[in-house]
Amino acid sequence: MSDVGVTVKKSEDFSEWYTQVIVKSGMADYAPVKGCMIFREHSYAIWEKIQQIFDEKIKATGHRNVYFPLFIPESFLKKEAEHFAGFTPEVAWVTMGGDTPLEEKLALRPTSETIMYATFAKWIRSWRDLPIKINQWCNIIRWDTKGTKLFLRTREFLWQEGHTAHATKEEADQEVMQILNEYKDVMENYLAIPVLTGKKSESDKFPGALYTTALEAIMPDGKALQMGTSHQLGQNFSKVFKIKFLDQDEKEQYVWQTSWGFSTRMIGALVMVHGDDKGLVLPPRVAPIQVAIVPIPYKDANSKEILAKAQQIYEKLQKQDIQVVLDDRAEYTPGWKFNEWELKGVPVRIEIGPRDVKQKQVTLARRDTFEKVAVKEEKVLNAVEELLEKIQKNLFNKARKFLEENITTVKTYSEFKKVLRKKGGFIRACWCSSPECEEKIKEETGATIRIVPLKKEKTFTECIYCGEKAKEVVYFARAY
Amino acid sequence: MSDVGVTVKKSEDFSEWYTQVIVKSGMADYAPVKGCMIFREHSYAIWEKIQQIFDEKIKATGHRNVYFPLFIPESFLKKEAEHFAGFTPEVAWVTMGGDTPLEEKLALRPTSETIMYATFAKWIRSWRDLPIKINQWCNIIRWDTKGTKLFLRTREFLWQEGHTAHATKEEADQEVMQILNEYKDVMENYLAIPVLTGKKSESDKFPGALYTTALEAIMPDGKALQMGTSHQLGQNFSKVFKIKFLDQDEKEQYVWQTSWGFSTRMIGALVMVHGDDKGLVLPPRVAPIQVAIVPIPYKDANSKEILAKAQQIYEKLQKQDIQVVLDDRAEYTPGWKFNEWELKGVPVRIEIGPRDVKQKQVTLARRDTFEKVAVKEEKVLNAVEELLEKIQKNLFNKARKFLEENITTVKTYSEFKKVLRKKGGFIRACWCSSPECEEKIKEETGATIRIVPLKKEKTFTECIYCGEKAKEVVYFARAY
Question: Which is it for the CA torsion B263, B264, B269, B270, positive or negative?
Answer without folding.
Answer: positive
